[in-house]
Structure formats: structure tokens, C-alpha cells
Recover the amino acids of this structure.
């Protein structure tokens, strides 16, 4: 949809920044699709990897402008910044697992090829009778049970299931030679490269001119592409990545606000506090107290 902003959500219908993400969010396809008449309009997710498994029913999906059929056994990978939409058959069954891309850093550090394999959308052929299908279904069944329970070490367990589900897709894509890879819109390719570079460089606080130069485009073109696909300015993409890291440090570490500010590349803790407060509506200390 050239010239128009594609809605960007955390999860479909949920505004960005509305809540701190779980290590893994998983839900049945019916949970969200039935609320919207089994039709999910075009949208994108910012820094969110989504993995679908269709176990019954099916329908169709459009990924970056290309149509694909969905049937029982279809496994779908959607990396961040992928424009996608769905038209499900009423009563379609299966799962959608969502993982914040920064949570996969350990996997990518251990196996750099994994980042490349998982950087593009892919629809794996339906194979409900093969062992690989049973493996993925088993993982998602177990992850769903963990997600809905309130047991000790829940976040740790969800993180482990996220790693296993992502690893399943990485192995299958390596074996498939990416034959199911979807074609990419040029804008989506640019924005994806930008988001990947932000992930590598956000702590350096590079200016937008540096990002644009590295990507071989102008700053206005980069910003326009981000607004059209993500509904965010290029500068906001960088700021949001810093906010994800800041929230994580405030919730999961005992580091002082000053220590966190220096780790995130801010030279002045007071400026970091103003930066955080303007975007979260709370000071770093207030956010930590409420988490």
C-alpha cells in the first residue's frame, strides 16, 4: 500500500509499548482471529519474530505483497518489519508464538548464520505426517501449557521454549534451502536492514546520517520508509530499541539508574532519566518500583 502507513502493533490490535513483553508469548490462532472475523488486516510488528503453526483449517496470507495458501501442517516465519495479513477459514486451529528479537541475541551470537536464516519471511511446506511437524506441535503444546500456568521460573521456562521453537525453524530453513522464502518489497528490505543495523549499533548512538550512509540511502528516504512500514520515524525506531533495553535493565537487574545510563551509551544520567520519562511517562525509578 504505497504512500500509506501500515499499522504497527506489539501484538495485533495492541499498541506499541503497552506492556513489557514476556520471554515468549504464545496463543491459539483462534484467540485473536475469531475476535476479528477471522480476517487480520495488513500490519507489521516492530522487533517481533512470529512463528505460526496451522494444525486445522487454513486460509491464505499475504506477505510483503505476495499471496500464499495456508493448510494444515503449514509453518510460517515472520521476522520483524514484515507486512502481513491473514484470511483464515472459520475455525482454523493452531498456534502463533511471538518472541522479541532482542531476546534471541544469545542464539545469534552462538550461531551468526541463524540471524541470516531467520531474517526473511518463509512458509515451510505443509507436512502433518512427518516427524518434524510432530516436534514443532509438541513444543508449542508444552509452551502453551507453560504460558497459561503460574509456576516458579516461568520466564526462564518460556525463554527456553522460545529458543527451542526458533531453533526448529532455523534447522528446517537450513534443510529446505529457503525454498519457501517470500519475495520482499524493496521498502521492507531496507527497513529490515535498518532494524538489523539498529540492533547491532544502538548503543553507539550513531546519527541517522550514519545509518543512511551505511545503507546507501538518504535520510529522508529512510525515514519515509520507516513511517510507511512501521508507523514510526527512523529516529523513533532507535529510541524504542534503547527503551526496550532500559526497561529490561530496570526490571531484571539491580544496576543503579546511573549504571544503566552509562551502559546504554548516555554520558549524563540526568539526560537518560529525562529521555526515559518522556517516553514511559514515569521516571526510571518509578518504573522499576511498579514493575
Amino acid at each position: 500500500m504505497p504512500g500509506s502507513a501500515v499499522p504497527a502493533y506489539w501484538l495485533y490490535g495492541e499498541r506499541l509499548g503497552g506492556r513489557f513483553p514476556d520471554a515468549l508469548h504464545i496463543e491459539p490462532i483462534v484467540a485473536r482471529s475469531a475476535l476479528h472475523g477471522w480476517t487480520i488486516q495488513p500490519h507489521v510488528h516492530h522487533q517481533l519474530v512470529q512463528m505460526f503453526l496451522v494444525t486445522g483449517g487454513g486460509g491464505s496470507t499475504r506477505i510483503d505483497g505476495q499471496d500464499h495458501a495456508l493448510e494444515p501442517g503449514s509453518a510460517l516465519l515472520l521476522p520483524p518489519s514484515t507486512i502481513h495479513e491473514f484470511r483464515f477459514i472459520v475455525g482454523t486451529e493452531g498456534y502463533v508464538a511471538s518472541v522479541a528479537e532482542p531476546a534471541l541475541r544469545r542464539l545469534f551470537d552462538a550461531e551468526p548464520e541463524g540471524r541470516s536464516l531467520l531474517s526473511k519471511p518463509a512458509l515451510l511446506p505443509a507436512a502433518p505426517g512427518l516427524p518434524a511437524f510432530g516436534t514443532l506441535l509438541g513444543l508449542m503444546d508444552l509452551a502453551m501449557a507453560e504460558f497459561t500456568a503460574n509456576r516458579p521460573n516461568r520466564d526462564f521456562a518460556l525463554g527456553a521454549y522460545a529458543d527451542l521453537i526458533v531453533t526448529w525453524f532455523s534447522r528446517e530453513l537450513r534443510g529446505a534451502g529457503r525454498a519457501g522464502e517470500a519475495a520482499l518489497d524493496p521498502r521492507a528490505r531496507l527497513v529490515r536492514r535498518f532494524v538489523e543495523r539498529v540492533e547491532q549499533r544502538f548503543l553507539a548512538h550513531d546519527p541517522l546520517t550514519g545509518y543512511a550512509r551505511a545503507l546507501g540511502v538518504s535520510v529522508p528516504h529512510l525515514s519515509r520508509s520507516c513511517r510507511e512500514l512501521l508507523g514510526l520515524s527512523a529516529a523513533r525506531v532507535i529510541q524504542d530499541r534503547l527503551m526496550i533495553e532500559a526497561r529490561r535493565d530496570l526490571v531484571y537487574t539491580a544496576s543503579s539508574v546511573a549504571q544503566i545510563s552509562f551502559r546504554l551509551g548516555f554520558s549524563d544520567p540526568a539526560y537518560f532519566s529525562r529521555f526515559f520519562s518522556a517516553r514511559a511517562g514515569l521516571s526510571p525509578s518509578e518504573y522499576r518500583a511498579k514493575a
Observations:
- The chain has a mean pLDDT of 85.
- The beta strands are 8-9, 25-28, 39-45, 48-56, 59-63, 66-70, 75-78, 84-88, 93-100, 122-124.
